[in-house]
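Consider the following input, taken from an annotated entry for Thiol-disulfide oxidoreductase (Mycolicibacter senuensis).
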Amino acid sequence: MTDIDIAPVLLYDGVCGVCNRSVQTILRHDRHGSLRFAALDSDFARAVIERHPALQDIDSMMFVDNPGQPGEQVRIRSAAALEVVRYLGGPFRLFLAARIIPARLRDWLYDRFAAIRYRIGGKHDSCPVPAPEVRVRFLG
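Applying the prediction step yields:
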């Protein structure tokens, strides 16, 4: 097993315009070049959810550490967003200050935004095809 096989994976709503622009932003600022991505309706995401049945009805961004390994850990909603910020590092670390906000309140705010995400960023008919130079980082 290679390092890329256990690199973290961000699960996201593949048809959401806001989510897709966020993934493009992450790709531009990813100094490590190892974070991988999968749509929430992908086979990869279904396998993660099968291993973690409590995630069955979650329609949220998910950050998966050590995917498929005994120490696999899945963070959802605002905790997933904060993991992305931690992963990116650099000036993005300033957003980690949001940890002082109680998780219930952060998740409530996350859910309010998620409820209107299609009105804000639109909705694609299907998951956009990634650029050839980053396609290997997208899991099916």
